[in-house]
Each structure stands twice: as structure tokens, then as C-alpha cells.
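step=encode ok
step=design start
structure_in=
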């Protein structure tokens, strides 16, 4: 996806500790090191991994890679790692047995990398790219999310791309705001088509 902010692309996350990043900016040498630096940053408090060690993050993303209903991706902005995206089957992961799933539901998480030089509109550009990636699969009818009820910044972003709040729900790790977005809601909110 290309827009006024640049080009967004997505590639599978390589959870192996030996993976090598191709970055002109230096920094972490593997996807796991990169994601560890993102999920342990204070701005990522709602990921609940602030105290995670590198091995914890490696174990988490190796488990996701091995899971048949959960995938993780690194999002790139103009070729540089800039966000994390997860896709999951909500009838098997995260929301299994907690809501009335519909055929074509897909679950999503995303995390924008911390930066010292924020770009206006960047996070909205990221969630738009993430949603386009979700709807690129023709079998997906709705994207389902379950952010923490206290995460007002994400609630505003979700609303901006067409999410509708269904309810609050108690999960073991948090009280979540279950929200869904259909293809039509996304297209109406963003002026695009999917």
C-alpha cells in the first residue's frame, strides 16, 4: 500500500534467533530482538510484555509460528521495520468460546514501533495497511479486535477505520472492548474499497 506517508508492506516474522534484518539504520539483528525492543517499550504497556526477556519473546513468537491458527508479521514503512501485526482465528485463539463468532471472522493485533520522530498520521496509516492486509483474503468478512478497555488511543483508531464496539468482555489478562469491522464498514470509513 502506498499513500502520502510512503509505502507499507508486510512480511512474515521470522522468530528464529539467527534471522538477520536488512536495515540501513542499524539496531537489532533479528526479528525477535526487534520485537523485544518494541513490546518492552513503555508505549507498548497494553501488550503486557513490559518485563519480558528476549527468550520470552522468542518463545512466544516461536509458538505463534508453530500454531495453525495464528500468524505474526513485520510491517515495513519504506522498507524499514515499523510495526508488528498478528492475525488469528478467533474461534481457536484469544476469543475461543468468548463471543458469537461468524463465518469469515479474523482476529487482529497490531503494534507500531516506538519512535523519537513521530510522523503525523502514521499510526492511522499503519492500521489502514493492516486492515487492507486482513481483507486481502477474500474469505475474511469481519476483522475482530479485543483491545484493553483503557486503551483509548486504539479505540479512536479502530473507530476511524470503521470498527463498531460490540461489548466489554472479561478475559483472563484484561477487560477487553470487543469490536468488529466488516469490509463495508472499512470501505465507508476510509473511502477505499476492498
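sequence_out=
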Amino acid at each position: 500500500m502506498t499513500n502520502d506517508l510512503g509505502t507499507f508492506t508486510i512480511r512474515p516474522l521470522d522468530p528464529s534467533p539467527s534471522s538477520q534484518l536488512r536495515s540501513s539504520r542499524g539496531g537489532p539483528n533479528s526479528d525477535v530482538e526487534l520485537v523485544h525492543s518494541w513490546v518492552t517499550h513503555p508505549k507498548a504497556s497494553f501488550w503486557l510484555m513490559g518485563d519480558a526477556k528476549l527468550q520470552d519473546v522468542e518463545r512466544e513468537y516461536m509458538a505463534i509460528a508453530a500454531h495453525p491458527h495464528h500468524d505474526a508479521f513485520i510491517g515495513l514503512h519504506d522498507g524499514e521495520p515499523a510495526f508488528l501485526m498478528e492475525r488469528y482465528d478467533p474461534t481457536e485463539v484469544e476469543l475461543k468460546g468468548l463471543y458469537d463468532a461468524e463465518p469469515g471472522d479474523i482476529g487482529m493485533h497490531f503494534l507500531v514501533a516506538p519512535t523519537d520522530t513521530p510522523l503525523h498520521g502514521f499510526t492511522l496509516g499503519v492500521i489502514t495497511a493492516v486492515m487492507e492486509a486482513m481483507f486481502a483474503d477474500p474469505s475474511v468478512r469481519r476483522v475482530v479486535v479485543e483491545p484493553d478497555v483503557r486503551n483509548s488511543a486504539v479505540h479512536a483508531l479502530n473507530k476511524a477505520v470503521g470498527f463498531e464496539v460490540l461489548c466489554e468482555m472479561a478475559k483472563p489478562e484484561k477487560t477487553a472492548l470487543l469490536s468488529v469491522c466488516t469490509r463495508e464498514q472499512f470501505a465507508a470509513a476510509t473511502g477505499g474499497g476492498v
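step=design ok
step=annotate ok -> The first strand starts at residue 2 and ends at 3.
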